[in-house]
Design a protein that fits this description.
There is one protein chain. This protein is of the alpha+beta class. The chain has helices at about 35-40, 65-70, 100-115, 120-130, 135-150, 175-185, 185-190, 245-250, 260-275, 315-330, 335-345; strands at about 1-5, 15, 20-25, 30, 60-65, 80, 85-90, 95, 190, 200-205, 215-220, 225-230, 230-235, 285-290, 295-300. It has a 4-stranded mixed β-sheet, covered by helices on one side. Strands 10-13-12-11 form a 4-stranded antiparallel β-sheet, sandwiched between helices. A 3-stranded antiparallel β-sheet has the order 2-3-4, with no helix packed on it. Bound molecules: zinc ion (ZN). Zinc ion binds near residues 47, 50, 52, 98 and 101.
């Protein structure tokens, strides 16, 4: 994520040596340079939205899964499994955030999303048809960046005799920097242009009795996440400018009923597979016009093409997403199914005639 400026930008905004943009009127950071993002937010303990240090402002920290989800699905005592295969309680899963940003985040993002998702799939679908997917896309970027910023605090090796590597030491931060810019755009009023929006699917899912009515999964490499709340499932690729959705469109149109957990994971894997194998990727930048208004924009490749040879196999991604459910399932032939998934020739979505398998 880089920056561009209009002709008289210097009048009311300041630019630091590392290319961080500061609004001189309200002193807000309009744009974090990659360097400042890594220093203050990834490696430091600054508020992940405004960048204030805990010595400057009151902090109350932000739950990674927002409190309304923890309450609605009774998850405070439940655990999330982390990439180092350890678990942490959702209720303790927080990152540094100041009170002021936390309140604004609640007002402008969390309360509207909480209300929208409380009224079921049809209501949410109608809202998005009328208002566009911007609110949900920002919210999903927030969830993803919060989850992966937390990884900066977590040890890769739990044995304290081993080196103190953090899970996030393995990350490449430039692409997360873009997702961070979108996630905090409610704060600096930066406008997200249409081509920045990633593949976002809002799908009906079968309702499973509590506690199974909530599910969350993400994949760092695919810059993707899914979340299932009762009869609503959101699947999103955050950095593909809809390339994966365009490739999946004809299959997507055949889906004609609510999805099972394995079907959701298959769609997720199919989209991630495209995103991870894109030959040319969109590039993103923030642009300030002459009125110092900020826009996050994208430069798109001319064609959607996959790498040759492919760098990531579909079966590996599909298996990564499904293996635990298959193992715990009561399928009689689960070893056979698991093998076919790894080979990339299995589908939970369509029968031999290519028709959607209804649950
Ligand atoms: Zn803040």
């Amino acid at each position: 994520m880089t920056i561009k400026f209009g002709s008289d930008f210097k009048k009311t905004i300041g630019i630091t040596e590392d290319k961080t943009v500061i609004n001189l009127t309200d002193k807000k950071i309009d744009f974090f340079s990659l360097e400042k993002f890594q220093k203050d937010i990834v490696a430091g303990d600054s508020c992940f939205i405004c960048g204030a240090s805990p010595s400057e402002k009151e902090f109350n920290n932000e739950h990674i899964l927002p409190n309304w989800i923890l309450r609605r699905f009774n998850l405070h005592e439940d655990e999330i499994t982390l990439p180092n295969n350890t678990s942490i309680r959702y209720g303790r899963f927080t990152i540094p955030c100041c009170v002021e940003c936390n309140n604004q985040l609640g007002r402008e993002i969390e309360i509207p999303v909480s209300e929208l998702t409380s009224k079921g799939y049809d209501n949410l679908k109608n809202y998005v048809i009328k208002n566009g997917p911007g609110l949900l896309f920002r919210w999903l970027c927030l969830l993803f960046i919060k989850t992966h910023l937390k990884d900066t605090l977590l040890r890769f090796y739990l044995d304290r005799r081993e080196p103190d590597y953090k899970i996030a030491d393995l990350f490449e931060w430039e692409s997360l920097h873009h997702i961070h810019c979108v996630a905090r755009s409610f704060y600096n009023q930066c406008f997200i242009t249409g081509e920045v929006l990633g593949s976002l699917l809002i799908l009906p899912s079968i309702e499973i009795d509590s506690p199974g009515n909530f599910d969350y999964g993400d994949m760092y490499g695919g810059k993707a996440l899914f979340i299932r709340m009762n009869d609503i499932t959101l699947i999103c690729i955050l950095n593909d400018s809809c390339a994966a959705l365009n490739s999946f469109q004809s299959e997507f149109e055949k889906i004609s009923g609510p999805l099972s957990p394995l079907q959701i994971r298959e769609i997720f894997a199919r989209l991630v597979y495209v995103n991870m194998n894109l030959k040319e990727r969109p590039t993103y930048y923030s642009e300030f016009n002459d009125k110092n208004e900020c826009f996050i924009k994208a430069k798109l490749p001319n064609k959607i093409e996959l790498l040759e040879p492919l760098q990531y196999k579909f079966g590996d991604i599909f298996s990564f997403m499904c293996s635990r459910i298959i193992e715990e399932s009561s399928f009689e032939d689960k070893e056979y199914v698991a093998q076919k998934i790894i080979e990339g020739v299995w589908t939970f979505l369509f029968n031999e005639k290519g028709e959607f398998i209804k649950n």
